[in-house]
Amino acid sequence: MKKQKLLRWAIKQRKVIQVIIGVALYITIGYYHISLWYVLLFGAFTGVILGKVFCRWMCPMGVMMEFLMSMTPGESFRQTYQYHKLGCPIAWISGWLNRFSFYRISLNKDTCKSCGICDKQCYISTLNSAKYSIYQNGKERPGASFSCSKCLQCVSECPNGSLTYKFAFSPLKTEKQVSMKKK
Ligand code: SF4
Ligand code: SF4
After folding, report:
1. Which residues form the domain of 123?
2. Which residues contact 129 (CB under 8 A, 6 or more apart)?
3. Which of 8, 47, 54, 103 is deepest in the core (most CB within 10 A)?
4. pTM confidence score
5. Probe ligand 1: pick from 117, 141, 157, max atoms within 8 Å of CB?
6. Cβ(156) to ligand 1 under 6 A?
7. Confidence at 82, pLDDT banded by 50, 70, 90
8. What is the tally of structural domains in the chain?
9. pLDDT tens digits for 101-137?
């Protein structure tokens, strides 16, 4: 329970965390002349463990892009989606790793009330509702898709605490296969 409270607090502070890590990374890379290959390796490593967290929790460019996207609120979902579809080499690698990462967004079907709030918070399922859903059976889980940048808004906004971000490694089953089996 304590872990979940801490996670929700961290999600609410995500932008602050992103600015602090992003600026620190930018200064460290510039001051110590660290090769971008090491940054790429670091991004890939975080991708294996946590999925595509680099873009929205650590990236200096991501900080600027998020600021620019927030200037057009009506279009921010679409812009965020496009931005995270293209990305950079770190985003390509860690986005692909969303399917296989150790930590994933997990749904507790027993407590889910099918209210749909999570889907409305997610730019992927909002823009592709026929294909993606965080809670509906028979649809792909956006959390496993390339574009999920682990903003974790879905986890934070679920009123029943039915979504968590936790260690859920399963090399043989995709999120879709799991949801189809439960149908
Ligand atoms: S917000 Fe929570 S309770 Fe509502 S549909 Fe999503 S997972 Fe289920
Ligand atoms: S973390 Fe949740 S809300 Fe954010 S993009 Fe991924 S599935 Fe959507």
Report:
1. 1-183
2. 119
3. 54
4. 0.88
5. 117
6. no
7. confident
8. 1
9. 999 999 999 999 999 999 999 999 999 999 999 999 9
Give the whole-angstrom CA distance, residue 102 versus residue 169: 5
Q: Is 151 in the pocket of ligand 2 (CB under 6 A)?
A: yes
42-72 pLDDT tens trace: 999 999 999 999 999 999 888 888 888 888 8
Whole-angstrom distance, CA of residue 164 vs CA of residue 48? 18
Answer whether residue 74 shows pLDDT above 70.
yes
Amino acid, single-letter form, for residue 121: Q
Residue 142, burial from CB neighbour count under 10 angstroms (0-12, 13-18, 19+): buried
What is the atom index within ligand 2 of the atom nearest the CA of 155? Answer: 2
Closest C-alpha among 105, 9, 25 to residue 62? 25
